[in-house]
Amino acid sequence: MKKTILLVLAALSAAGAFAAAQPAVVPQPRLAVCDGGEGLQLTDGVRISVPADNVVLFRVAEQFAQWMEREAGLRLAVAESDGPLRLTLDPALGAEAYRLTVGPDGLLVEGGTEAGVFYGLQSLRQLVSQYGAALPALHIEDEPTFAYRGTMLDCCRHFFTVDEVKTFIDILALHKINRFHWHLTDDQGWRIEILRYPELTRVGAHRAETVLGNNSAACDGKPYGGYYTQRQVRDVVAYAAERFITVVPEIEMPGHASAALASYPWLGCAGEGYKVQTLWGVFPEVFCAGRDTTFEFMEEVLDEVIALFPSEYIHVGGDECPKENWKRCPECQRRIREEGLRDENELQSYFIHRIERWLNAHGRRLIGWDEILEGGISQSATIMSWRGAAGGIAAARAENHAIMTPNTHCYFDYYQTKDPRQEPWGIGGYVSVGKVYALDPYDQLTEAERPFILGVQANLWTEYVAGMAHLQHMLLPRLAALAEVGWACDRRDMESFRVRLGELRRLYERCGYRCAPYFFDRTDE
User: Fold this and answer.
1) Which positions are annotated as active-site residues?
2) What pLDDT digit, counting tens, does each position of 98-114 carry?
């Protein structure tokens, strides 16, 4: 096979080779060349060979065979013996890097780790969709720009079944996204089973009704609820891991706490009068920061959470926390005096610091939305910058790690066109495919500050996204643009992206994914 690779590369180096039609892969590979010469013909029964002692690669090969049967009608076989389609490891490559070479006598996918091979196969899925079963001679060398490439799904405002979450994960995998940020608790619903606190799901997972429409106080009068058992959570985490995606859970604190307070009123400053919210927005009911019992509760919840999620990072929210109740609460004011804090902003920092120390003592690291910068943060906290890029810039300049997810470019609950009458409901705003693609994660940062940017993330809040078809409409094709920012930030080309995205759309159709048509039908996106 090595001889084949050398022959292919020699052919591709010939005059005119680089001017030939290029592989239409999203995200853009670092190197992708094709001269249109004879490659490999995939037919039923073609063997995918893997090293005999690598169980993970065997599983990856079986996944690829399943995709090929669904997307191309090909029935491939997985075997340890030599086959024309080989998967192997090359430790000289980076952990997520891969090489993909097609020649007349075989196809080789090499990865620095099993994850690299998996990403090579995502590219191969696109190549089969583009060229069909008769693949031309080509060579791809590729690796990502950022180690963190994430997408968040809010399952609190609207609940998605385990199967729907798995479909969401499959879509992320196709785009080489490696983090699934799972928003599990909020004012409108607590979605994760905590055995020590059963009222969180008996009470907190259900609301009396749901608000109708945009900017309306009218509700539908229909009880709404749902949650994930710990067994289901483990199933989702394992499913994601098989696709080399780490699930990052979010447990909101100290704000967005209504569902928890309705379940256990002693967690709030008033101690009574709470309900699971039926409207969207920001509410004054927050966790009491003055009582040690609040922290005991949070630590016991997190103790069960970290047992379910192997993720290094645990997201604690930290956003949109009104301080009015803290100003009136004797216990919170006592905490401010005893800890020598200046105000309620520093009280929030105290809350986050205390939780972070607990997480660090248990081998985990804290991520919070950029509001945790207010009042000061520790050097080890990671910022997720959503209110524009300012939080990420400030974090990087303070030598804190940051993930760029500004609402100006990365909020997929915003409309994709300038005329929302063409679209299903969104929360407002305007984030087109082109706007996503234009995101500069390093904006205003010096060369010395850039290493503190870990990566990028898209966020899909679901106040107005109640079903899977709507979810996919909001996600695609914008996720392809976000994926290219995260994987190929240093080699983006909008005109090339338009062509490649047109090919990717055909694969969406073969997978049964719903894709918003606006990018393809309009010229101003």
Assistant:
1) 186, 256, 320
2) 999 999 989 999 999 99
